[in-house]
Description:
Blueprint: H1 16-70, E1 91-92, H2 103-114, E2 125-131, H3 141-144, E3 147-153, E4 160-164, E5 167-169, E6 180-185, E7 188-196, E8 199-209, H4 224-227
Parallel strand pairs: 1-8
Antiparallel strand pairs: 2-3, 2-8, 3-4, 4-5, 6-7, 7-8
Helix pairs in contact: 1-2
Amino acid sequence: xxxxxxxxxxxxxxxxxxxxxxxxxxxxxxxxxxxxxxxxxxxxxxxxxxxxxxxxxxxxxxxxxxxxxxxxxxxxxxxxxxxxxxxxxxxxxxxxxxxxxxxxxxxxxxxxxxxxxxxxxxxxxxxxxxxxxxxxxxxxxxxxxxxxxxxxxxxxxxxxxxxxxxxxxxxxxxxxxxxxxxxxxxxxxxxxxxxxxxxxxxxxxxxxxxxxxxxxxxxxxxxxxxxxxxxxxx
Length: 234
Protein backbone atom coordinates (compact mmCIF):
# COMPACT_ATOMS: atom_id res chain seq x y z
CA UNK A 1 0.00 0.00 0.00
CA UNK A 2 1.31 3.38 -0.97
CA UNK A 3 1.80 5.75 1.92
CA UNK A 4 1.28 9.43 1.64
CA UNK A 5 3.25 11.81 3.83
CA UNK A 6 2.53 15.46 4.39
CA UNK A 7 5.18 17.82 3.05
CA UNK A 8 6.69 20.07 5.65
CA UNK A 9 6.27 23.77 4.96
CA UNK A 10 8.82 26.20 6.41
CA UNK A 11 7.66 29.77 6.96
CA UNK A 12 9.96 32.49 5.56
CA UNK A 13 8.24 35.41 7.32
CA UNK A 14 10.03 37.53 9.91
CA UNK A 15 8.92 37.28 13.45
CA UNK A 16 7.91 40.40 15.35
CA UNK A 17 11.12 40.27 17.35
CA UNK A 18 13.23 40.12 14.20
CA UNK A 19 11.39 43.12 12.72
CA UNK A 20 11.96 45.12 15.89
CA UNK A 21 15.68 44.28 15.82
CA UNK A 22 15.95 45.45 12.19
CA UNK A 23 14.11 48.67 12.97
CA UNK A 24 16.38 49.36 15.93
CA UNK A 25 19.48 48.82 13.75
CA UNK A 26 18.10 51.19 11.09
CA UNK A 27 17.34 53.80 13.73
CA UNK A 28 20.89 53.58 15.09
CA UNK A 29 22.36 53.91 11.59
CA UNK A 30 20.11 56.91 10.86
CA UNK A 31 21.17 58.58 14.11
CA UNK A 32 24.81 58.14 13.05
CA UNK A 33 24.34 59.31 9.46
CA UNK A 34 22.02 62.30 9.87
CA UNK A 35 24.55 64.54 11.68
CA UNK A 36 27.19 63.69 9.09
CA UNK A 37 24.81 64.44 6.22
CA UNK A 38 23.67 67.67 7.88
CA UNK A 39 27.27 68.75 8.29
CA UNK A 40 27.99 67.91 4.67
CA UNK A 41 24.97 69.93 3.49
CA UNK A 42 26.05 72.94 5.57
CA UNK A 43 29.59 72.71 4.27
CA UNK A 44 28.36 72.48 0.68
CA UNK A 45 26.13 75.50 1.26
CA UNK A 46 29.03 77.51 2.69
CA UNK A 47 31.24 76.52 -0.24
CA UNK A 48 28.56 77.66 -2.69
CA UNK A 49 28.20 81.00 -0.91
CA UNK A 50 31.98 81.41 -0.83
CA UNK A 51 32.17 80.77 -4.58
CA UNK A 52 29.43 83.31 -5.28
CA UNK A 53 31.04 85.85 -2.94
CA UNK A 54 34.40 85.51 -4.65
CA UNK A 55 32.71 85.90 -8.03
CA UNK A 56 31.27 89.15 -6.66
CA UNK A 57 34.75 90.27 -5.60
CA UNK A 58 36.13 89.57 -9.07
CA UNK A 59 33.21 91.44 -10.66
CA UNK A 60 33.72 94.47 -8.40
CA UNK A 61 37.42 94.57 -9.21
CA UNK A 62 36.72 94.27 -12.95
CA UNK A 63 34.38 97.26 -12.84
CA UNK A 64 36.83 99.31 -10.77
CA UNK A 65 39.51 98.45 -13.33
CA UNK A 66 37.17 99.77 -16.04
CA UNK A 67 36.76 102.98 -14.05
CA UNK A 68 40.53 103.20 -13.62
CA UNK A 69 40.89 103.04 -17.39
CA UNK A 70 38.63 106.09 -17.73
CA UNK A 71 41.13 108.16 -15.78
CA UNK A 72 41.19 110.12 -12.49
CA UNK A 73 37.88 111.49 -11.31
CA UNK A 74 35.89 108.90 -13.28
CA UNK A 75 34.40 107.24 -10.20
CA UNK A 76 30.67 107.89 -10.31
CA UNK A 77 28.79 108.74 -7.12
CA UNK A 78 25.53 110.26 -5.95
CA UNK A 79 27.07 113.54 -4.76
CA UNK A 80 28.72 114.38 -8.06
CA UNK A 81 32.14 114.64 -6.41
CA UNK A 82 35.03 114.33 -8.85
CA UNK A 83 36.86 112.29 -6.22
CA UNK A 84 34.29 109.52 -6.33
CA UNK A 85 33.08 110.05 -2.80
CA UNK A 86 36.49 109.38 -1.34
CA UNK A 87 36.32 112.33 1.03
CA UNK A 88 33.63 110.58 3.07
CA UNK A 89 30.37 108.68 2.77
CA UNK A 90 29.43 105.58 0.82
CA UNK A 91 29.21 105.62 -2.95
CA UNK A 92 25.76 104.21 -3.67
CA UNK A 93 25.39 102.01 -6.72
CA UNK A 94 22.29 100.27 -5.37
CA UNK A 95 18.67 100.52 -6.48
CA UNK A 96 17.54 101.84 -3.09
CA UNK A 97 19.22 105.21 -3.56
CA UNK A 98 19.26 105.65 -7.35
CA UNK A 99 16.88 105.93 -10.25
CA UNK A 100 17.23 103.34 -13.04
CA UNK A 101 18.41 106.08 -15.41
CA UNK A 102 21.24 107.25 -13.12
CA UNK A 103 24.93 106.55 -13.79
CA UNK A 104 25.39 105.08 -10.30
CA UNK A 105 22.56 102.60 -10.85
CA UNK A 106 24.17 101.55 -14.13
CA UNK A 107 27.57 100.91 -12.53
CA UNK A 108 25.83 98.63 -10.03
CA UNK A 109 24.13 96.87 -12.92
CA UNK A 110 27.52 96.25 -14.52
CA UNK A 111 28.74 94.49 -11.40
CA UNK A 112 25.61 92.34 -11.26
CA UNK A 113 25.86 91.52 -14.95
CA UNK A 114 29.36 90.11 -14.47
CA UNK A 115 27.91 87.96 -11.69
CA UNK A 116 25.09 86.74 -13.96
CA UNK A 117 22.66 88.58 -11.70
CA UNK A 118 20.07 91.32 -12.16
CA UNK A 119 18.26 93.69 -9.81
CA UNK A 120 15.59 90.99 -9.51
CA UNK A 121 17.98 88.46 -7.97
CA UNK A 122 20.80 90.63 -6.64
CA UNK A 123 22.61 89.61 -3.43
CA UNK A 124 20.85 90.60 -0.21
CA UNK A 125 23.84 92.79 0.67
CA UNK A 126 26.92 93.50 -1.44
CA UNK A 127 29.37 96.18 -0.36
CA UNK A 128 33.00 96.53 -1.39
CA UNK A 129 35.81 98.86 -0.43
CA UNK A 130 38.81 100.34 -2.22
CA UNK A 131 41.55 102.69 -0.99
CA UNK A 132 40.10 106.00 0.21
CA UNK A 133 40.85 108.90 -2.12
CA UNK A 134 40.87 111.57 0.58
CA UNK A 135 44.20 113.42 0.11
CA UNK A 136 45.10 113.00 3.78
CA UNK A 137 44.94 109.20 3.38
CA UNK A 138 47.84 109.39 0.93
CA UNK A 139 46.60 106.51 -1.22
CA UNK A 140 47.95 106.10 -4.73
CA UNK A 141 45.60 106.13 -7.70
CA UNK A 142 46.06 102.38 -8.15
CA UNK A 143 45.15 101.77 -4.51
CA UNK A 144 42.03 103.88 -4.94
CA UNK A 145 40.79 101.38 -7.55
CA UNK A 146 41.96 98.17 -5.81
CA UNK A 147 39.32 96.12 -3.98
CA UNK A 148 40.57 95.36 -0.46
CA UNK A 149 37.27 94.58 1.21
CA UNK A 150 33.96 92.86 0.36
CA UNK A 151 30.90 92.23 2.54
CA UNK A 152 28.49 89.71 1.00
CA UNK A 153 25.15 88.22 2.07
CA UNK A 154 23.63 85.85 -0.48
CA UNK A 155 20.02 85.97 0.75
CA UNK A 156 17.95 86.89 3.78
CA UNK A 157 18.65 83.47 5.29
CA UNK A 158 22.36 83.29 4.42
CA UNK A 159 25.38 84.03 6.61
CA UNK A 160 27.50 87.10 5.93
CA UNK A 161 30.99 86.54 4.55
CA UNK A 162 33.74 89.16 4.48
CA UNK A 163 36.82 89.52 2.29
CA UNK A 164 39.48 91.29 4.32
CA UNK A 165 43.25 91.05 4.47
CA UNK A 166 43.24 88.79 1.44
CA UNK A 167 40.99 86.08 2.89
CA UNK A 168 37.33 85.29 3.49
CA UNK A 169 35.98 85.20 7.04
CA UNK A 170 32.53 84.71 8.57
CA UNK A 171 33.09 86.78 11.72
CA UNK A 172 32.13 90.44 11.83
CA UNK A 173 35.40 92.34 11.17
CA UNK A 174 34.37 95.42 13.17
CA UNK A 175 34.35 93.26 16.31
CA UNK A 176 38.12 92.84 16.01
CA UNK A 177 40.12 96.07 16.04
CA UNK A 178 43.19 94.25 14.76
CA UNK A 179 41.27 93.70 11.51
CA UNK A 180 39.11 96.79 11.07
CA UNK A 181 38.99 100.01 13.09
CA UNK A 182 38.72 103.80 13.03
CA UNK A 183 42.01 105.54 12.23
CA UNK A 184 42.92 109.21 12.03
CA UNK A 185 44.75 110.36 8.90
CA UNK A 186 45.76 113.90 9.74
CA UNK A 187 42.49 115.66 10.49
CA UNK A 188 40.46 113.05 8.60
CA UNK A 189 38.96 110.10 10.48
CA UNK A 190 38.30 106.92 8.51
CA UNK A 191 36.12 104.56 10.51
CA UNK A 192 36.55 101.74 8.01
CA UNK A 193 40.28 101.07 8.00
CA UNK A 194 41.69 97.58 7.60
CA UNK A 195 45.20 96.41 8.43
CA UNK A 196 47.01 94.42 5.75
CA UNK A 197 50.54 93.17 6.44
CA UNK A 198 50.89 95.84 9.11
CA UNK A 199 49.82 98.61 6.72
CA UNK A 200 46.63 100.59 7.48
CA UNK A 201 44.35 100.86 4.45
CA UNK A 202 41.51 103.40 4.75
CA UNK A 203 38.48 102.29 2.76
CA UNK A 204 36.06 104.04 0.47
CA UNK A 205 32.92 101.90 0.35
CA UNK A 206 30.76 101.20 -2.69
CA UNK A 207 27.26 99.81 -2.12
CA UNK A 208 25.94 97.58 -4.92
CA UNK A 209 22.90 96.13 -3.17
CA UNK A 210 21.30 96.44 0.27
CA UNK A 211 18.16 95.13 1.95
CA UNK A 212 16.84 98.56 2.93
CA UNK A 213 17.54 102.27 3.04
CA UNK A 214 18.75 102.03 6.62
CA UNK A 215 22.02 101.11 8.26
CA UNK A 216 23.31 97.89 6.71
CA UNK A 217 26.16 97.54 9.23
CA UNK A 218 24.50 97.04 12.62
CA UNK A 219 21.14 97.40 14.29
CA UNK A 220 19.28 94.14 13.77
CA UNK A 221 19.13 90.64 12.37
CA UNK A 222 19.00 91.87 8.77
CA UNK A 223 22.29 93.77 8.96
CA UNK A 224 25.82 92.57 8.21
CA UNK A 225 26.46 92.11 11.92
CA UNK A 226 23.21 90.21 12.32
CA UNK A 227 24.20 87.82 9.52
CA UNK A 228 27.75 87.30 10.75
CA UNK A 229 28.98 84.59 13.11
CA UNK A 230 28.28 84.16 15.99
CA UNK A 231 25.11 86.29 15.58
CA UNK A 232 23.66 84.30 12.70
CA UNK A 233 21.66 81.18 13.57
CA UNK A 234 20.31 80.29 10.13
